[in-house]
Amino acid sequence: MAAILSISDLRKSYEGGFEALKGVSLDIDEGEILALLGPNGAGKTTLISTVCGIITPTSGSVKVGGHCIIDDFRAARALIGLVPQEINLEPFEKVINSVRFSRGLFGKPKNEPLIEDILKKLSLWDKRNAQVKELSGGMKRRVLIAKALAHEPRVLFLDEPTAGVDVELRKDMWDVVQELKDSGVTIILTTHYIEEAEAIADRVGVIADGQILLVKDKDDLMAQLGQKQLCVYLTAPVSEVPSSLATYDLELSEAGDALIYTYDTKAERTGITALLNDVAAAGLVLADVSTRQSSLEDIFVGLVSGEKS
């Protein structure tokens, strides 16, 4: 599938020498959802703001649908919808008028059926004549998305779209994002919620200190970087791991009633069979076993920690 967004060696430096972006290169395919994970100050918002023309890059290039964001700014920006972190809406404006206005800013002709469709998809149709100040925080975020979609962009940036939104409404928002993808919109979202990336992203990018550490298919990332843990529960607790099991580098649970074995899912041999045999040989009696797959959060923390060390 062709890339709808191509970023090449993008850099942004400020007076004083601070580098917010350090040679970011990234291709995003049309119709995919990319989740960009990173700690505060990693460069996520700077990257989005640069692509959207809010910040001027120091060097590098960005093309949206083949249009350069510098040389062909209007054409590039017309393909982009942006939902910022901050809720910045005119409080006394009606919802529907706010969305209409955003469409007009891009020189698009009136299209009431489209506006109605967007508001209905975002569960805002019943609130179309309400003033923005009357809405909840979650509904205001939906208005921001509606405004970003009003000019029919092909690429939608969601900067922390569910920040401050309760869990139930957050899941509703995930459904909205999936519907947008199904309609052909390419979505790039930044998030602090690891479960958000796991739930809806096709690929996951990790950014730290202004650099992209990796971009991987979500499932491949879990398979390649994820580890599994085997928890061996014992019928009677022990005070320490028997010396005969030292080669397995086991952890002992706080209660002393379980041995925790971490292994690589990519390895040709996991060592589980040998471990269970040696546990029995050590005179320990098994009560139960369970496995746990590393989460994206475990992987993310490990990557960022490695970058800082």
Note the topology:
Blueprint (H helix, E strand, L loop, with lengths): L2 E11 L5 E11 L3 E5 L6 H8 L7 E6 L2 E2 L4 H6 L1 E4 L11 H11 L6 H10 L15 H13 L5 E5 L7 H16 L3 E6 L2 H7 L2 E6 L2 E7 H8 L1 E8 L16 E2 L5 E7 L7 H10 L4 E8 L2 H13 L1
Parallel strand pairs: 3-8, 3-9, 6-7, 7-8
Antiparallel strand pairs: 1-2, 1-4, 4-5, 9-10, 11-13, 11-14, 12-13
Q: In a nutshell, what does this entry contain?
A:
This protein is 33% helix and 28% strand. It is α/β, with parallel strands linked by helices and 309 residues long.
The helix content is 25-40%
Give the overall form: elongated
User: Which fold name fills CATH's third level, the topology of the largest domain?
Assistant: Rossmann fold
Name of the level-1 CATH class of the largest domain? Alpha Beta
Low-confidence stretches: none
Structural class computed from helices and strand pairing: alpha/beta
Terminal CA distance: 37 Å
Strand count, sense and barrel status of the largest sheet are: 6 strands, mixed
- The appropriate CATH architecture of the largest domain is 3-Layer(aba) Sandwich
Could you state the CATH homologous superfamily of the largest domain? Answer: P-loop containing nucleotide triphosphate hydrolases
Rg, rounded, reads: 24 Å
What is the count of distinct domains? Answer: 2
Q: Can you give the mean pLDDT? A: 89
What are the key terms here?
309 residues; alpha/beta; Rossmann fold; Alpha-Beta Plaits; 6-stranded mixed sheet; 10 helices; 14 strands
